[in-house]
Amino acid sequence: MDQINVFLMELTKPRGLIFAFVFVGALTWLCYAFSDKITRGRVHGSAVAIVIGLILAFVGGMLTNGKRGIADVPLFAGFALMGGAMLRDFCIISTAYGVRLEELKKAGLAGVLSLVIGTFVAFVVGVAIAYAFGYRGTVDLTTIGAGAVTFIVGPVTGTAIGASSDIIALSIAAGVVKSIAVMILTPLLAKPFGLTNPAAAMVYGGLMGTTSGTAAGLAATDARLVPYGALTATFYTGFGCLVCPSVCYIIMRMIFG
Hints:
This protein has helices spanning 2-12, 16-37, 45-64, 79-82, 85-97, 101-132, 138-149, 153-161, 165-189, 198-208, 211-221, 226-256. The chain is mainly alpha-helical and 257 residues long. The chain folds into 2 domains: 3-85, no CATH class; 98-256, no CATH class. The mean pLDDT is 82. The chain crosses the membrane at residues 43-63, 75-97, 109-134, 141-161, 167-189, 201-221, 233-252. GO terms for molecular function: sodium:malonate symporter activity.
């Protein structure tokens, strides 16, 4: 067993990031297979993968008494880089470059309004929950509120306005919970809410915003609706990254001082 551990460390230590991508790829494949074979598509593979990722992060932190989750385990040290700010910001930029304003026009006025309303409603709900749990600082409230928009907007906002690492972590957790909830609840609420056509999917994508949650939820509902929901949801993250550290933060300073 010791020889195996030594071999694995020698193999993965200089290739930590590559191993992290291979591990995540294999885990994602297994999660999608589980979704397809066990739940018959009722729970999307992305939701399963996120839950397992959270469990692994928790177990890694408990085993090592560390602060970086599974990245504190030497074998999985590459996750610190994979999940760090550099690749996070790369994802944001690549998403922004993939957006075309011509496509947003296809969503029409309803799509644009849903985008704006969805962003600010999510922010207000996040702020209200943070306030109810005793947070009073403007920076803390703004960061957690931004996390309720998406788990990308939260850390971007927190970094921009100087939030602590603990608050940024809470903002990410808020966004992940929202993403999982959207994945799971979308198929259940689709018919009662009339989410059965492209126009409704566009509005839904703008209101929910979390691209991963919306796309996965719509895929489990009707795969034909995914492009329409993702169309407005794609703009949601970019819009949130613009308004939360600026407009929302200014408003919060005016209210809370």
